[in-house]
Amino acid sequence: MSKTSRKKWDYHDIAQWGPGRHELGATIPVSGTADDYDTGGWRSERPLRDREKCNDCMICFFACPDSSVIVEDGKMATIDLKHCKGCGICAQVCPRDAIELKNEIIARKLEEE
């Protein structure tokens, strides 16, 4: 297959497919490798926590799809920016509005100050 051609998937009978029939797509050869990859690099917005508003209710921890809320001694310690993709779910579920999303470039400058 040349670099410019793509495989044409035959899925005309997809309604009859069962667990044993799936076209090959992305594969995960082994589990438990998420720590090996920095996936936060394409984030355009960064969550910033207001420590004074945060009461460590941990709702953000349970809602984060990337396990990017780091907990120490039962409290939110930080956000793992190596894996956070900036989806904003943590900010949406925070009952105290202690997390807000900022443009990644602006957030970096704020952290440097």
How would you describe this structure to a colleague?
- The chain has 113 residues and is an alpha+beta fold.
- It has a domain at 42-112: Alpha-Beta Plaits (2-Layer Sandwich).
- 17% of the residues lie in helices and 17% in strands.
- The chain has three helices and four strands.
- It has helices at residues 59-63, 89-93, 104-112; strands spanning 45-49, 69-72, 75-79, 99-103.
- The strands form two sheets. The chain has a two-stranded antiparallel sheet.
- A hairpin with a 2-residue loop joins strand 2 (69-72) and strand 3 (75-79).
- The radius of gyration is 20 Å and the shape is elongated.
- The mean pLDDT is 83.
Strand count, sense and barrel status of the largest sheet are: 2 strands, antiparallel
Shape: elongated
How does CATH name the architecture of one domain?
A: 2-Layer Sandwich
CATH topology of one domain: Alpha-Beta Plaits
Number of strands: 4
Order of helices and strands: EHEEHEH
Q: How would you write the strand order of the largest sheet?
A: 1-4
Instruction: Determine the strand fraction and express it as a percent band.
Output: 15-25%
> What is the CA-based Rg, rounded?
20 Å
The number of helical elements comes to: 3
| Contiguous uncertain segments of 5+ residues | none
Helix content: 10-25%
Q: Please identify the structural class as seen in this structure.
A: alpha+beta
Through-space gap between termini: 52 Å
Mean pLDDT figure = 83
- Text of the CATH class of one domain: Alpha Beta
